[in-house]
């Protein structure tokens, strides 16, 4: 069994192959070749939960299974620890042979950003930036990397929880050779940026106002009914002017942003339903996460020449 640390896991999940693996997994799902039970969330301690997320391919589609076992502790950054800790185990489905052990936080960051990237390719009216990112954590960095490396976005505006966190994040981006500035006026940033990503701890609304007609808003941080990032009035406005797409069917009862806005979630198409880009209005892509995306990451790694062939 190959064991990948965080750096090796990142190298094994380049954007283009990972997006392709996501697309293939969605096609296999539509053909009944994928099983992905809804995740189990078990309380371990106060404000700390254990997530168990299995998914697998039929033998004809790839004979592959993956299970992610991670803990999520929202207060961990204050302790000097990552909010997400854990692993993804990749096995051959027919035999149970262990193929790889991947770093869970790295898989989560890269596959989440890659799903957003896939959605932007399909749905964004103007997928060229500038990009406004709200949040300064791991997911924010992964999304900036995905949008700049894979979409060619060359201008990034940052809104952090505090001015200091925003400045520190822009300095990190500068070290990667990117143009980045702190967005001190969010209303102005919304008018400048057609690409917007919210990736905060989702403990309070972080985005309100009015987005452009050609905006693509990816709301990443909220993944339970009690979590929220978007002002409900903003969510309703996008739904009325454009379209709302969710990453998976489970988001219909997990997406706090959409629930708070009172949307009829059965009207929201999933990525598996292959929604088409509309010819007018903004797009809201609501991502709550799914074992489907971990399985796609496992496919990406399993097809590497470093692992035994199937």
Molecular structure report:
This protein is an alpha/beta fold and 310 residues long. It has two domains: 117 residues, ornithine cyclodeaminase, domain 1 (2-Layer Sandwich), CATH 3.30.1780.10; 179 residues, Rossmann fold. It is 34% helix and 26% strand. The chain is built from ten helices and 17 strands. The strands form three sheets. Strands 10-9-8-11-13-17-15-16 form an eight-stranded parallel sheet, sandwiched between helices. Strands 1, 2, 3, 4, 5, 6 and 7 form a seven-stranded mixed sheet that branches. A two-stranded parallel ribbon has the order 12-14. Helix 5 links the parallel strand 9 and strand 10. The chain is globular and about 55 Å long. It starts with a strand and ends in an 8-residue tail after the last helix.
Using only C-alpha atoms, the radius of gyration works out to 18 Å
The tally of helices reads 10
| Helical content class | 25-40%
> What do we call the CATH topology of the largest domain?
Rossmann fold
Mean pLDDT: 94
Describe the sheet with the most strands.
8 strands, parallel
Whole-number count of domains: 2
Low-confidence stretches: none
CATH superfamily of the largest domain: NAD(P)-binding Rossmann-like Domain
CATH architecture assignment name of the largest domain: 3-Layer(aba) Sandwich
CATH class of the largest domain: Alpha Beta
The share of residues in extended strands comes to 25-35%
InterPro entries: NAD(P)-bd_dom_sf, ODC_Mu_crystall, ODC_N
Protein name: Delta(1)-pyrroline-2-carboxylate reductase family protein
Organism: Pseudaquabacterium terrae
Pfam family, one: OCD_Mu_crystall
